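Running this now, will post back.
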Amino acid sequence: MNSITKLSFLLVTNTENFELTKRCVVSIQKNCTIEFEIVIILQVISFEKVNDFAIFKNVFIFQVSTRSLSESRKFGIDKCSGNWIHFIDDDASLIDCPSRVIDFTQDYSFYSGRIVDFENITNNYSLRQNRRSCDLNKYNLSLVLSSGLIFKNADFISNLIDVKFGVGSQFGSSEETDFCLQLLNLGYKGKFVYEYLIGHPANNIAYWSVNQMKKKFYSYGLGRGAFLRKNIFKFNILYIIFDFFIRIFMVLIFYRKKKFYKHLYFLKGMLKGFIAYEE
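Update: finished.
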């Protein structure tokens, strides 16, 4: 069943949540039962706790000066020696070994799992969920979450990372969506695996302040709009029009409610990203 000879976990961190990052590393060490390595990209030049990772096996640390998630991942991919690579956020946790859940002998080149609250794995973390496993296509890539993204390594793979997308870049989201669309455009197949779980701290927007909501969803919308503009000729134009229409509809539905700001600032960001993106 297991065609993986070695799995590289690629973890980018700015060390602001060091204890969570350490918990992520511990979860991989504990739950991964196949040959693996953990490639950590530190987005700082100097970090006094870097030696704390030395107690773990198969951990390789590289330091970069950029705060761009995509630039760091692009750099990190070229440092990975595994034949498969697993993106994982620095505050996420591995719940089970991928090879116990995913059949890597199937004709797929990338997989995405599902995010759950690691303190209560019966609770879905994200609304971007399907209720069953399914093949991925350009219209359902919202199912892809980067902390659960696993893909075959190849010499060209880092070239598919668009550094304009992602946290710390011009457009602060949609980096995983764009990356997977490039793979699909090259003829590779992907699958969403409902049973593969990645733990993540609960992030209930009901407790967010209005300013937090404005900032976060503006960033989400910015990436979404730029993604649609970049790939405008890869989608049916009616799909793009509908995407904007549904955002406007949600703004109207939630008018004068707290979630109004979520949808309004997503729409604002989406419009800005669509207009501002340039090749």
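The first strand starts at residue 7 and ends at 13. More later if anyone needs it.
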